[in-house]
Amino acid sequence: MIDNHSRHSKQPVGATHPLAHTNGRTPNDLRVVALAGGVGGAKLATGLQAVLSPGALSVIVNTGDDFEHWGLTICPDLDTVLYNLAGVNNPETGWGRADETFAVLRSMSLIGGEDWFRLGDADLAVHLRRSEWLRQGVSLTEVTDRLRRAFGVRSNILPMSDAPVRTLVHTDEGDLPFQHYFVGRRCEPCVIDISFVGAAEADLPDAAYTALLTADIIVFCPSNPYLSLDPILSVGEMRDLLSKLRAPKVAVAPIVGGKALKGPAAKIMREMGYPVTPVTIAAHFGDLLDGFVLDHEDEAAANHMGVPTLVTDTIMRDLESKARLAHAVLNFACSLTQPALPLSPHLHISDIAT
Length: 354
Prior knowledge:
The chain has 13 helices and 15 strands. By secondary structure, the chain is α/β, with parallel strands linked by helices. Residues 1-17 and 338-354 have low confidence and may be disordered.
């Protein structure tokens, strides 16, 4: 496991400048909540963990992708965040385990079992343990925390709901459960609409609710806004709660130069008739946001975002760049709590990272 936080006085990875103060709190006890799903969210969560104190980060993760397979409960986004924060993820894909093997998958295929969803051997152990605990009546929040502790992750990983919420993709081929659209059909069908079955009846778990109430900063990670973040926002009173919280809420663009950094976000936007720009993403989240982070490639859009905007390098290639972006996002969010700081329509990182 990668451990990038020192207990001593050294700067955390990527922190070339000290974090600003916010709400009277010091950087050492800054509490941050990240809303995340998929590889993009997991990458930024890894950067946030690297620059924050142990336990200061809580990641509320999309569970709309969860499904039953081989008689097991599979939670792809929770596991992607878990593996990334533990430093055991596949570095090439961003999801799955490093050095994974697929002996069980091959054996399952030989006896006529479903093999369209690639479960690795080490990954399978997590699904077996999770499913065992869930059958015993343990909540998904508690199960996830047990797994977090087992992997030595120092940040909190929280499911958006303990009750099942399932993303249903309405396409030109009919209604498809998320994994059948995303993996089974490789995102090929044209998306007409998306709904979240069970979201209205679901409640935000107490741990996630408490994390939000006590957060100094809330970060919307560069996850797919429609498939990863909307499910989180659809749970119970989540959107209403976020609108009432005073902590600054900052989103990082998942679209750079008209392309999605990962996954089908740009394709879905085109199919649903939306311009593939960060402006569309900002408008989608509306008044939930207090700030937005753009890549240099989209600097021309900064004057049209409708909220204070930071322009910086948002491409996360390695741990250093993940931590550097996380540090810039946090400093930008801190600046939004200080009215005396004059905000131009958009900022460059050099304007606030001091």
